[in-house]
Design a protein that fits this description.
By secondary structure, the protein is α+β, with helices and mostly antiparallel strands. The model has no long low-confidence stretch (mean pLDDT 94). It is globular and about 50 Å long. 52% of the residues lie in helices and 20% in strands. The protein contains 6 helices and 6 strands; from the N terminus they run αβββαααβββαα. The longest helix has 31 residues, at 46-76. Strand 4 and strand 5 (112-117) form a beta hairpin. It has helices spanning 3-9, 40-43, 46-76, 89-98, 130-133, 136-166; strands at residues 12-16, 22-27, 31-36, 102-106, 112-117, 121-126.
Length: 167
């Protein structure tokens, strides 16, 4: 395996929500762990938690991309801090199509769902009553399941787009 693949397989990225109520960590390429500050799970409502989770997802993706560009820089032995600009009409069309990709993930019980369009616009839905039915550990496991499913869905859709545009 190459330097980039090795670094991404061992990646560990951690973010904390602005209000410090949630901590999320991405380990490797697809494993997401969520931790809630003490007492938050008992006090928060589903819509508020969903909004905070969407914020944490955006932060986690941004942090992941920073680590990705660091790993890419190391693999190519040159400093890379952002994606290269499209240089051909095909590249422009690929980027436009990629920005429309909708990736989705849901927990096995369907109570927790997360989606993202173009890895920019995050939506989180928690079924009404979930926090009263699931314990905190069960809920954080549901988040992990949905996050892993979303990441896999995104990877599959991006691979398909690359085949479509670049053969």
């Amino acid at each position: 395996m190459g330097i980039l693949a090795d670094r991404l397989d061992r990646m560990s990225v951690r973010v904390i929500s602005p209000d410090r109520s949630l901590t999320a960590e991405l380990q490797g390429r697809t494993t997401v762990h969520l931790t809630l500050a003490p007492g938050v799970y008992r006090r928060i409502r589903e819509p508020d938690l969903a909004q905070r989770l969407a914020t944490v997802a955006r932060l986690l993706w941004a942090a992941r991309m920073k680590v990705y560009y660091q790993a890419l820089s190391e693999a190519l032995d040159e400093r890379i801090t952002t994606e290269a600009k499209p240089v051909s009409p095909r590249d422009v069309n690929y980027h436009a199509a990629r920005d429309q990709v909708l990736a989705e993930g849901r927990s096995s019980d369907g109570r927790f769902q997360v989606s993202v369009q173009g890895m920019r616009h995050w939506t989180v839905h928690i079924a009404t009553g979930t926090l009263g039915v699931l314990g905190e550990d069960q809920f954080t496991e549901a988040v992990s399941q949905a996050a892993a499913e979303l990441i896999r869905d995104q990877q599959v859709k991006i691979r398909e787009l690359k085949r479509q545009f670049y053969g």
